[in-house]
Structures are given as C-alpha cells and as structure tokens.
C-alpha cells in the first residue's frame, strides 16, 4: 500500500493511447451512437464533453483497446437489430441462478480442488478455505440489475459425485479422469485435469459443464447461470473464468479465479482498481513501462480533479482501499467480481427492460440492495453496492460502464 492521494485524475485517454492508434470518438459521434433506429433521443447534455461523469477509456499498455484499437464498434441501433438476441416473452421471462453444486461423500477430495495452492501466513488459511458468496446475494444483485425480470434460484439441486459407480474414492490421491455432475436423477460426465499453472489441484472442463446446463434449462427460462467453485478450462486455455452461449440461453461462471487471495500472486494493485485507475500518478507509472515520460498536469486536469462525480467516486473508493485487508471487505470484493461477471454473461441474452431506455433516463429508481456495503468501493464492478439501509441509483454510460449517480444513507 503506497497510500496514494489520487490528487490529479486522468479523465481523458492516457498518453499511450496515441501510440496504440486509439482515437476517442467525438461527443457528437457518441451521441449519435446512442440514438434509436425508431427515433432520436433528445439528450439534454451540455455541449461540453462531461468527462468528469463519463471518463474516456484510458487505453493503457496491455488493455484490449491497445491490441485492437480499430475493432468494429457497436452502437445502439446495431445492438437493437441483432438477430441473435433472445426476446423476453410471456413464457420465457425468468432468469435462473443455480447454487454451487454440493460435493458428495464419494468425492470429498473435490473440496481441496477449490483451494488455491499458495505460500501464505497462518492468518490467511481460513480465508483460503472460506466459502464463495451465497447464491442469495447474486439473486438480489441480478434482480436489481435486470429490473423487471423474474430472477429465481434454480430449484433443481446440483451435486458433484463419482463417475465411476461402485468405486470408493474418499481418499483419491490422483486426479480421476472424470467426475459427474448430478442433476435430479441424471448425471453429466465432466472431464478433469491438472491445471498447467498449478494454482489449483484440478480443473473441470467448461464445455462439459455447459452441456449439463443445457440439459437442466427450465422451460420458462430466459437464461440460466451455473456457479461453480472449481477452476475450469476450455480447449487449450490455461483456465477460463466462464462462458455464455446466448443461443442456448446458458452460462457458467467459476468463483475460484476471482478469489481475492490470488491478488498478491497476480500483482493486482487494489489501490488503483476502477475508479481509482483514473489516478494520473498510476497512469503515468504504467505508461513509463513503455518509455513515456510523465507529463505535467494541465490546468483543465487540475480543475476537473477538484470536484464532480469522478472525484466523489474516487474519494469513496479510497475509503474502501484503506480497509482492503479487512476480511469482510475481501468477501465483498469477491462478490463484486462475480456479480459483474454474472451480469455481463446474462447480457448475452439482453432483457430490454433497462437497455431500451435513453441514456439520459438510464437512472433506476432508488432501490433496496441487500448485498454487502463494500462491494464496489474501489472494486471493478457495475454499481456501488450498499448496505440494507442504503439507497442507490445507477446509470449507464456510452462506453459500457456503470457509474454512480447518487448514494444516500
């Protein structure tokens, strides 16, 4: 922890963006991109580009926009005309989220597969063994995120069991070739392997789990998401955090790789997670790896760093960052990462309830949220989570991120 003050904010693309070949679209182009094919929205935005509300992408080294700055954009009209979108119908308007499968007695060794293999202090051992966030928290989150949709827990109980009938495997020393995902009276065979990077003891095959998800998709489901506590892989990848198949209405998200216990090993700077990533000192430090010397802050940067929505967001996030080692906050950080992923994967089958609104009206009415109080203060998530006694409002910006509009207690 460097105790950075985040005094000057970088709200425009970084100096590296020019080297990467990225050009920020003009305000007018971004306005046009939000227009409906049926009618143009009367966006009551000042002619001046309000970067303090909707900051530009930083385009830092190793960012996706760095590698492919000319990737084809998608405006609202293109999104609206997608043939692959699943329409919400009267018979298919429920989002199902499945509880993490239970590990049954004949595969008890699978409990150890969920724990990262790290050199740790004794104090961290309990956290590594901690359970992932409960499914009820995700149901609360997705219900608020996709306002107007029915969000339910999948009533079918899922279990991990042995694929090899009649064999005792309580003390399995080697990794079996297969395990079974039990759903009701049926099972789906799941391949296993040892992870190439050795972070976990075993991985499960993502495609096999997706096959199981397709078999249990309820008839009234708009979409279903399975939560898996184990590490997964797909094809030749080292690991895969999840996958969504929009046409099949199924998605799978693993919790293991999002565990904050892995942050130190991966070199994650929690002090500069979004929105703190807009700290100019942090941006300068990253750009220095590409031999770009820091530039003096402009008068506009100094002025825009003093107040405004991003200033307030950074100040609020700084409070979280100072308490980042707290166990409760680490659990909230774990939840925030997973909640963002679930919301993104479910967007492959985008419900129109929120997305059909104009940008200027994408402000949800105040709502109650039962998720932990720190879920996104400093964490890269889609909205600020609040305590039960807190009300929140969120809005969508044209670059694809959610920003806090107002929080009151």
Automatic annotation (TrEMBL):
GO biological process, one term: proteolysis
Cofactor(s) needed by this chain: Zn(2+)
MF-aspect GO terms: metal ion binding; metallopeptidase activity
Keyword Lipid metabolism: no
Xref: Gene3D superfamilies: Collagenase (Catalytic Domain)
The keyword Oxidoreductase is assigned to this record: no
Protein name, as recorded: Archaemetzincin-1
């Amino acid at each position: 922890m460097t105790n950075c003050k985040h005094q000057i904010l970088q709200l425009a693309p970084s100096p590296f963006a020019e080297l990467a070949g990225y050009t920020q679209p003009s305000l007018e182009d971004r306005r046009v991109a939000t227009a409906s094919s049926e009618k143009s929205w009367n966006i009551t935005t000042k002619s001046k580009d309000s970067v303090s509300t909707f900051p530009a992408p930083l385009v830092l080294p190793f960012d996706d926009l760095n590698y492919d700055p000319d990737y084809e954009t998608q405006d609202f009209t293109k999104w609206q005309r997608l043939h692959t979108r699943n329409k919400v119908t009267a018979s298919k308007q429920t989002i199902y989220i499945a509880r993490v499968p239970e590990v049954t007695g004949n595969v008890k060794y699978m409990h150890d597969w969920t724990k990262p293999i790290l050199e740790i202090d004794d104090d961290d051992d309990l956290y590594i063994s901690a359970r992932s966030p409960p499914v009820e928290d995700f149901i609360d989150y997705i219900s608020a995120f996709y306002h107007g949709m029915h969000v339910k827990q999948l009533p079918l109980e899922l279990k991990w069991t042995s694929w090899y009938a009649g064999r005792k495997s309580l003390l399995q020393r080697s990794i079996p070739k297969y395990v079974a995902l039990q759903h009701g009276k049926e099972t789906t065979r799941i391949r296993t392997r040892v992870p190439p990077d050795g972070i976990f003891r075993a991985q499960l095959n993502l495609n096999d789990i997706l096959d199981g998800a397709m078999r249990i998709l309820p008839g009234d489901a708009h979409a279903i998401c399975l939560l898996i506590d184990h590490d997964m892989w797909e094809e030749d990848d080292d690991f895969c955090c999840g996958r969504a198949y929009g046409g099949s209405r199924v998605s799978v998200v693993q919790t293991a790789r999002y565990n904050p216990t892995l942050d130190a090993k991966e070199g994650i700077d929690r002090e500069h997670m979004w929105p703190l990533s807009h700290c100019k000192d942090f941006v300068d430090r990253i750009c220095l790896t590409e031999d770009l010397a820091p530039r003096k802050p402009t008068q506009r940067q100094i002025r825009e760093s003093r107040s405004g929505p991003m200033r307030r967001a950074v100040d609020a996030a700084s409070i979280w960052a100072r308490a980042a080692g707290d166990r409760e906050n680490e659990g909230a950080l774990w939840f925030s990462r997973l909640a963002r992923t679930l919301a993104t994967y479910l967007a492959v089958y985008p419900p129109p309830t929120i997305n059909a609104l104009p940008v200027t009206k994408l402000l949800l009415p105040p709502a109650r949220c039962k998720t932990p109080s720190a879920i996104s203060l400093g964490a890269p998530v889609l909205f600020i989570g609040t305590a039960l006694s807190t009300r929140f409002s969120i809005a969508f910006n044209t670059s694809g991120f959610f920003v806090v509009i107002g929080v009151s207690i």
